[in-house]
Amino acid sequence: MQVFEQAEPGTDFLITRYRGGNSNLRTQLLRIIKKAGLKPWPKLFQSLRSTRQTELSEIYPAHVVCAWLGNSEDVAKGHYLQVTDSHFTRAAQLDPELPDSSAEKAAQNAAQQPAVPARRGSQTILQKPENPEISGEIRSNATPCKALQNSAMALVGLEPTRFMGDGF
Question: Is-contact 66 76, C-beta < 8 A?
Answer without folding.
Answer: yes
